[in-house]
Design a protein that fits this description.
- The complex is a heterodimer.
- By secondary structure, chain A is α+β, with helices and mostly antiparallel strands.
- Chain A has 3 domains: 186 residues, Multidrug efflux transporter AcrB transmembrane domain (Multidrug efflux transporter AcrB transmembrane fold); 89 residues; 110 residues, 2-Layer Sandwich (Gyrase A, domain 2).
- Helices cover 51% and strands 23% of the residues of chain A.
- Chain A has 13 helices and 21 strands.
- A 4-stranded antiparallel sheet of chain A has the order 9-10-2-20. Chain A has a 4-stranded antiparallel sheet with strand order 3-4-8-7. In chain A, strands 14-11-17-18 form a 4-stranded antiparallel sheet.
- In chain A, a hairpin with a 4-residue loop joins β5 and β6.
- In chain A, α10 runs antiparallel to α11 and α10 packs antiparallel against α13.
- Chain A starts with a helix and ends in a 9-residue tail after the last helix.
- The N terminus of chain A is likely disordered.
- Chain B is elongated, with a radius of gyration of 24 Å.
- In chain B, the strands form 2 sheets. Chain B has a 4-stranded antiparallel sheet. In chain B, strands 1-6 form a two-stranded parallel ribbon.
- The model of chain B has no long low-confidence stretch (mean pLDDT 91).
- Chain B is an alpha+beta fold.
- Chain B folds into 2 domains: 204 residues, Up-down Bundle (Multidrug efflux transporter AcrB transmembrane fold); 79 residues, Alpha-Beta Plaits, CATH 3.30.70.3400.
- Classes of the chains: A alpha+beta, B alpha+beta.
- Chains A and B meet through α6, β20, α9, α11 and α12 of A and β5, α5, α7, α9 and α10 of B.
- β20 of chain A pairs antiparallel with β5 of chain B, so a sheet runs across the interface.
């Protein structure tokens, strides 16, 4: 039950305020989903190498080992099948780790004669997804912070989704374009041969559309960057992004440039070449600049992306809701207006219907509303437009409990001469009915809370809390008031009508 | 003043009426279906305000039609100056989409305008939301069934659930017939209707049970009538105050809450009606007697 001391705490803690939902204060809600396919593919590639090394080290001969979509196929000699099967199912195994919390291995193993079919298990995939989501959230937070929005809210949803709430932002386009880029940066050299082979790859230069054959070897990646910022190049009046490398990066960069003077160095971002200057001199000192026909805005964005680091996998926007500040304010006004009118209508109705007891019910209703709003504040619940509707609905339904009691008392006074006993009976006999009737609404509200999303959740919270404050105010406050009234008028005939 | 209306005289005729309404609703739901909003169908919704007196919807429509967005729907939204445009879109990743749209429109349109609200829901999310909504409604019906089963005898439980189905199906039927939009807030309304209708039924059932224990000589047909009359003022007052609150939301709460409050108003009227004329005749049908409730106490 709600104690009165909780209520007093409110004055002491002035920090707490009702939070307004995005539909009331305006802002953007984005639901992002990580596309983990590339991460899983990469994990399987490295697993393949891991298995190869492991067998080599343990001197077990492999007849063939290949990756077939998401299935690792391992062929061994017939005599080794049993031994290898034991290795894979060993709980101490390093090659197929066992997760004690899930009671499952990383890989599901199926043996088909002398071929082992290895597949990531359900939990193996979940762990990969969780790790990649944690990493992505970190990067998303950095990028959003760099843009400097007001109190962003970044939350995990399931194991591959991120919920982003950006209060006050009425145009999420910039954030969307920043989050839409993986920002996987690599410096790679142009291949010396002109034939495509296993170690090379053909990529396009964005500006000219020219295709270059690049070596797959990455000289430095985004991980080696410690800083990046947009700058005006005074020589040719171009906007460039200048960067600073960490120690390892600078060393590698110096070596590579020293050995490859005259070769083109391609700067690859998310599978496309931004620019590919020819190396003219050794670049020591660990800093450099990227040019690529940037505008100041695009250079600023690229620098921001490079500073925040690469996402582990591409992010897709799967839901977006943006409310402008005007509409939010209009909704607040409409919500408050309808609350006041609804409240006055109900109060007027009750006064006309029950007179003195109507006034008691109305007073209870006011206390009820104050309690409801205080508790919502204490819970730091978010008030949404449907939430305001929930408060108005509570006003309409809250009088029900008092009506049930008054009607019951009416019946009891016609049978019982002693007013005190009649009132007591009225309260005790209607108690069960009131509880039964309100529990049904609470059940509906709880289910709505579990399955509802966004603003609708706000509705279920106000509805739930509203019922609790109603029960409290009716059984404690209204009861106190009616008993005072009845004691004063103990010997008069009391008519409720 | 003791009330003694003969509600039980109308049990039969009103039941026929209700069954007809339910069948009609089902026909609408099956053949016409529900008009799902972007929450459940996916796609893009844009609320636009045009800052001029009496803007022409046809000008807006032809401008949007020029942009190759596929089939678009455009409607007035509340005031003369506000419009809602909806169209299908599966790919939400293009960060410049809305900006381009805004730019295109500002080239064609001479009046000032602003996008007040933009909602993009991808196909995956919309199907999940629909599933969650249906699950929530089914679960709430089941939870009510179980709760009433625990608190009352099974006959009461069936009667209460029948009344709930009646309210939910007819409310949705009316939404289908009038092509009103079904979105997340309508699901919230339906769940609240479930709670409210149950609340109403429970109050009358409580009285029926009490009276069953008190009077052994009154037949259930008349006993339900007595119980309805005894709780009638409460039924009327509570429905009235709830309706007053809802009408206030409907009239003054803004366009976004219109569908929600309309569904709730329908639900409260239907819920009040069904707790009298559906829930009670079923107790008569099941021949509930004093024995039924006394058995429960042992």
């Amino acid at each position: 039950m709600v104690s009165s001391s909780n209520f007093l705490d409110l004055d002491l803690d002035k920090q707490k305020k009702i939070k307004l939902g995005l539909d009331l204060q305006g802002g953007s809600y984005l639901l992002l989903e990580l596309d983990n396919e590339p991460v899983i593919k990469q994990k399987l590639q490295s697993k393949l190498l891991e298995i190869k090394d492991y067998f080599k080290k343990n001197k077990i001969k492999i007849l063939s080992l290949k990756l077939d979509d998401k299935l690792i196929k391992l062929k061994v000699s017939k005599d080794d099948v049993e031994k290898i099967s034991e290795i894979f199912s060993d709980k101490e195994s390093t090659i197929n780790p066992y997760y004690f919390q899930y009671k499952a291995h990383q890989l599901d193993v199926k043996i088909n004669g002398d071929v082992f079919n290895l597949e990531l298990s359900k939990y193996g995939i979940i762990l990969i997804k969780n790790a990649s989501l944690d990493q992505a959230i970190e990067i998303v937070r950095k990028r959003v912070d760099e843009v400097g929005t007001n109190e962003p809210n970044i939350l995990k949803r399931g194991n591959d989704r991120i919920l982003l709430e950006l209060p006050g932002l009425d145009n999420p386009d910039r954030i969307k374009s920043l989050l839409g880029k993986t920002a996987d940066l690599a410096f790679r050299l142009e291949s010396k041969s002109s034939n495509e082979s296993f170690g090379t790859e053909k990529l396009k230069l964005i500006e000219t559309g020219e295709e270059l054959l690049l070596s797959k070897r990455v000289i430095i990646s985004g991980d080696n960057l410690i800083d990046a910022s947009p700058r005006m190049d005074s020589l040719n009046n171009q906007t460039v992004v200048s960067f600073t490398l960490d120690r390892v990066g600078s060393k590698r960069f110096a070596q590579a440039t020293k050995r490859n003077i005259g070769t083109r160095l391609a700067i690859v971002l998310d599978g496309q070449i931004i620019s590919a200057p020819v190396i003219r001199d050794v670049i020591a000192g660990g800093s450099g600049q990227i040019s690529g026909g940037f505008t100041f805005q695009s250079a600023t964005d690229l620098a921001l992306l490079l500073r925040s680091g690469a996402l582990p996998a591409p992010l897709n926007i799967i839901e977006e809701r943006t409310v402008g500040p005007d509409l939010g304010q209009d909704s607040i006004n409409a919500g408050i207006l309808s609350l006041i009118i609804g409240f006055l209508l109900v109060i007027g109705f009750m006064t006309l219907k029950y007179r003195i007891f109507g006034i008691i019910a109305n007073f209870t209703l006011i206390i009820n509303l104050i309690l409801l709003i205080s508790i919502l504040t204490l819970l730091e619940a978010t008030l949404t437009l449907p939430g305001i509707a929930g408060i108005i609905l509570t006003v309409g339904m809250a009088v029900d409990a008092n009506v049930l009691i008054f009607e019951r008392i009416k019946e009891e006074t016609s049978k019982e001469k002693n007013n005190l006993i009649a009132f007591d009976n009225g309260y005790s006999k209607s108690k069960i009915t009131i509880l039964d009737a309100n529990i049904t609404t609470i059940i509906a509200a709880i289910i709505l809370f579990i399955f509802g999303s966004g603003p609708v959740k706000g509705f279920s919270i106000t509805l739930c809390v509203g019922i609790l404050t109603t029960l409290f105010s009716v059984f404690y406050i209204a009861r106190l008031l009616t008993s005072i009234y009845v004691k004063i008028n103990k010997n008069k005939e009391i008519i409720i009508k | 003043m003791k009330k003694d209306y003969k509600f039980n005289q109308y049990y039969k005729s009103l039941n026929v009426f209700s069954i007809a309404l339910i069948l009609l609703s089902l026909i609408f739901l099956i053949f016409k279906g529900l008009n799902y909003g972007v929450d459940f169908k996916g796609g893009t919704l844009i609320e636009i305000r045009v800052e001029t007196e009496k803007p022409d919807i046809e000008v807006l429509r032809s401008n949007f039609n020029k942009m190759n967005l596929g089939k678009i729907s455009i409607k007035n939204f509340g005031s003369d100056n506000d419009f809602v445009v909806k169209f299908k879109r599966d790919e939400l990743n293009d960060p410049e989409f809305i900006e381009n749209l805004q730019r295109n429109l500002s080239q064609e349109l001479t009046q000032d305008f602003s996008f007040r609200r933009v909602e993009n829901v991808g196909p995956k999310v919309s199907s999940e939301l629909l599933k969650a909504g249906v699950t929530a409604i089914c679960l709430s019906l089941m939870a009510m069934l179980i709760y009433i089963w625990i608190r009352f005898e099974w006959q009461f439980s069936v009667g209460a659930i029948a009344a709930l189905f009646h309210d939910v199906i007819i409310t949705l039927g009316i939404f289908s017939a009038l092509s009103l939009e079904i979105n997340l807030s309508i699901v919230a309304a339906v769940l609240t209707i479930v709670g409210y209708s149950m609340n109403d039924t429970v109050v009358i059932y409580d009285r029926v049970r009490e009276n069953l224990k008190k009077y052994s000589d009154i037949k259930i047909f008349d006993l339900t009538n007595l119980s309805i009359n005894e709780t009638l003022s409460r039924t009327i007052i509570t429905s009235s105050t709830t309706l007053l609150a809802l009408i206030s939301i409907f009239l003054f709460g803004g366009e976004i809450l219109k569908g929600f409050s309309l569904a709730m108003i329908l639900g409260v009227i239907l819920g009040t009606y069904s707790s009298i004329f559906i829930a009670n005749p079923l107790l008569v049908f099941f021949k509930v007697s004093q024995k039924t409730v006394l058995k429960e106490d042992n």
